[in-house]
Amino acid sequence: MTARILVVDDVPANVKLLQARLAAEYFDVLTAGSGLEALETCENSKVDVVLLDVMMPDMDGFEVCRRLKGDPATSHIPVVMVTALDQASDRIRGLEAGADDFLTKPVNDLQLITRVKSLVRLKMLTDELRLRAATTRNIGIEEMLARGAGDYSERARVLVVDERAPSAQRIARLLEPFAAVDVEADPQIALFEAAEKPYECVVIATGFSDYDPLRLCSQLRSIDRTRFLPIILVAGEEEEELIVRGLDLGVNDYVTRPIDAQELGARLRTQVKRKRYNDHLRASVTQTIEMAVTDPLTGLHNRRYLDSHLETLFDRALARRRPLSLMITDIDRFKSINDSWGHDGGDQVLKEFAARLRRNVRGIDLACRFGGEEFVVVMPDTDGQIAERVAERIRAEIAGRPFPVGRDGKSIEVTVSVGVAAMLPAHDRVADLLKRADTALYEAKSAGRNRVVAKAA
User: Fold this and answer.
1) Can you name the CATH fold of 144-290?
2) Residue 153 — pLDDT band, cuts 50, 70, 90?
3) Cys-Cys with 162: which of 205, 229, 392, 438 at CB 3.0–4.6 Å?
4) Are 1-107 and 144-290 the same fold in CATH?
């Protein structure tokens, strides 16, 4: 695993020590000797994890962390505070500032590398989601992503897995101010519950009598529904090896016994906040992409999608020397339908037309609403003769059964005119193909409507 790590410390010896440890694991290491330099590096360079000293002149690590987490451009970068401070109050202060973890000097090599690798994995996931979100912004719907990233103040729903009732009750009691908590003693039942219910974090305690808690962690990471569900491990201070293995398996964070209530709460809030942020990115990407390429009335792809995807299908057909055909359909006298039945009636006809069109094309065909009452179907691996037969089948399907319209169960006769064109590999372009199909459509309408016309050239 390769990543770029920023080491921030005003003591050159400390910087060199961490730099050597990380370079030995093939990480790309950047360094900064002050808080301001660290902020500038994060703003101007790609940084995957920040290892941040707390005690620095001018600007301490807490303030640097607050600024990084307060800037939308850098808030997603994991921050690990590395310091000689070892009091619970110091850890809590760092976590409240937005730090993802807190390592005490002298830093254990195994803990350092394992923690960095774990945070790099999380950063890569967030980067992928942010990249997809940026792609949606590039197609003109940036405002969709600006509608808030979720309510981080809302109480989380948490599952505690611990077979020892007193321990489970204590963890639940500590979490009560921050979350709605369910407790489960049986790990297999807990796995099922986590997959079926909308939990935002699972807290797994070690100390089972005859069960390895890391098996549950591994199972949670292997199931699609729980793959991104945060896991916090509760372990004894002496269980360092188990903690390290857990982080390698995908455990997000851990606390050691005796549990500090404020620390547990701060770590829980960090995990829930990150999950909600990533969930918001996923939802935004899905919603905005769907809105960008789908006609909301008919559910078919829209003109925007056709313009971008037709080029791809056309180029693929040329490269593979395969046929490609296209049809443009136009509902006959659609204006009179709107005039007689209103736009609600016209919308009913459009939706029913789209449904019948969808039933009569293949899964590999691209059916789009071109605009108004015009629809386009792109048919890969289809020559002109077959495309003409498909168009005739669609025409007959439209004319063969009346369309329901209005609320009183009435129906009307609807017909469609269709223009068909096939790709000419020798000298064709997308614009030529569309033009021929459009010309064929014009001829079909001029010849009396309710018919198919195919243009060979």
Assistant:
1) Rossmann fold (3.40.50)
2) low
3) 205
4) yes
CATH domain 1-107 topology = Rossmann fold (3.40.50)
Which entry of 200, 263, 373, 388 is annotated as an active-site residue? 373
213-222 helix and 187-196 helix, angle to the nearest 10 degrees: 30
Any idea where the domains of the chain sit in the sequence?
1-107, 144-290, 303-455
Predicted local distance difference test score (pLDDT) of residue 39: 96
> What is the rounded average pLDDT of the residues 239-246?
90
Please tell me the pTM assigned to this model. 0.58
* CATH number for the domain whose boundaries are 303-455: 3.30.70.270
Highest mean pLDDT among 97-111, 256-270, 344-358: 344-358
At residue 252, φ and ψ (nearest 5 deg) are: -80, -35
Question: pLDDT for 397-410, tens place per residue?
Answer: 999 999 999 888 89
- Stretch 338-354: mean pLDDT, rounded? 94
Nearest to 425 by CA among 457, 401, 392, 389: 457
Band of pLDDT at residue 146, cut at 50, 70 and 90: very low
The pLDDT of residue 148: 43
Of 246, 220, 223, 215, the C-alpha closest to 233 is 246
* Per-residue pLDDT tens digits for 361-381: 998 899 999 999 999 999 999
**Which residue, 422, 448, 440, is CA-closest to 329?**
440
Peptide bond into 106 cis (omega under 30): yes
